Amino acid sequence: MIIRTSTNSKSAEPVPHVLTALIGKTGFWNSHRYSQGTQVFRNGEVPEYIYQIREGAVRSYKLLSDGRRQIGAFYLPGDIFGVETEGRHRLTAEAIIDTTVWIAKHHRLFENLGEHELADTRNVFELLHNSLEHAQNHLLLLGRQDAHEKVACFLLEMDRRLKKPPVILLPMSRTDIADYLGLSIETVSRSLSAFRDRGIICFNCHREVILKNRTKLAEVALSIHRYRHWMHPDRQHCSD
Q1: 140, 156, 177 - which closes a domain
Q2: Do 164 and 114 share a domain, yes or no?
Q3: Lowest model confidence (mean pLDDT) among 28-37, 138-147, 176-185
Q4: In angstroms, rounded to a whole number, what is the distance separating the alpha carbons of residues 82 and 24?
Q5: How far apart are CA 107 and CA 128, in angstroms?
Q6: Nearest-angstrom CA–CA distance, 109 and 1
Q7: Range of the domain at 219
Q8: Of 93, 95, 114, 112, nearest to 48 (Cα)?
Q9: How confident is the model at residue 12 (pLDDT cuts 50, 70, 90)?
Q10: Which residues contact 61 (CB under 8 A, 6 or more apart)?
């Protein structure tokens, strides 16, 4: 693998082995840094590059006709993005915080692969499959009617993708979370407060969340009947 480091890169750290399978050992990967709020690419642009996040986080979004923003995905370290099935980017991508990515020319995807490198493609397809799975889970999440369920699903998704850390460091703001879940920021805050008051989560600070009871949070996410009644004590309990 030939590595070329961009002028704003912080280091010349070797490219992860799995990325070799994307463009072959003769391809070039640059390490590039995007400052917080910088656009990576814009909706409607022709895809030129593919990306994998080294550190930081990126959101993809689209502005709706009424001016609202719908966030389509959050990309975290290890995620690959920028791969499109059509000739244009469908969403705009933007760095949520200062973010460093591996970047390579889009047209080199799967070019110049040696025989032994083909075996590594399974790891790449696993990464791409994970991105598809995130998108499918997001669609299922948006289909939920209860705000508590949506917020619980989001916290469990972040917990899973970050490998169940002791403390979940959320790079995104509550406004981002609201635009991802199709809720208002006030509704997201109320749900988080409800979980905190019931001892399910606690906060170290605004974006540091500790999941104290994953089982109860999963019950909310799965809309288990007894837990819906506990979260909404004003609702009359219906017999089976």
Answers
A1: 140
A2: no
A3: 138-147
A4: 18
A5: 17
A6: 14
A7: 144-231
A8: 93
A9: very low
A10: 69, 70, 71, 72, 91, 92, 94, 179
